[in-house]
Structure formats: C-alpha cells, structure tokens
Design a protein that fits this description.
Largest sheet: none
Strand content: under 5%
Shape: flat
Number of helices: 4
Structural class: mainly alpha
Order of helices and strands: HHHH
Number of strands: 0
Distance between the termini: 68 Å
Helix content: 55-70%
Radius of gyration: 26 Å
Amino acid sequence: MMQLSTIQAVAGVVLMLHSMISMQQFRAWAKATESADSPPLDIIIECLAGMCLLIAAVFARSGNLMTIKSAPYAAKRPYDALSYRPNFILFNHRGKHV
C-alpha cells in the first residue's frame, strides 16, 4: 500500500501542473483580449493547495531529525574558545575616524 505522503506528493504535483496549465491559458486569453486582470481566484487557490500538499508530503517523508555531534576535540572546549580567531581581529579600520 502506498504511504500517505506519497499520495500527498502526487496530488500536490497534479494540482501544481493543472494550475500551471490554467495560468498559461489565462495569460493567453488575457493577451488576446488585451485585459490586464489579475489571475482568477481558483487558480491561485489551486496553486496554494498544491504547494501546501507538497510541503506536507516532504515533512512527512523526511523522518526524525538527528542530533549534531561535535568532534571529540571540540566537545572538551567551550564555544568561545572555538570561535576565537585572532587573525580576523582588525585594529586599523574606519571606525576610529567616524
């Protein structure tokens, strides 16, 4: 049986493709009639629904997050000691002239 996230992803892709085709048809119609209206609300809603379905499918498929483990030498030192880089300290800068 297919997982729910796979069904959501397929439905999201179908909705996005249909909204893309509908938008192309609307743009062709608007160009032919020389009207500069905004896109119809049903196309916008369809595009947003497809995007929401795709985002939900990606979040459902991603699984659990794993912890980030630091290197053994970095675990023993405090963070301030790891971020201290004396080569990047500048004393001759334009701040003293401001």
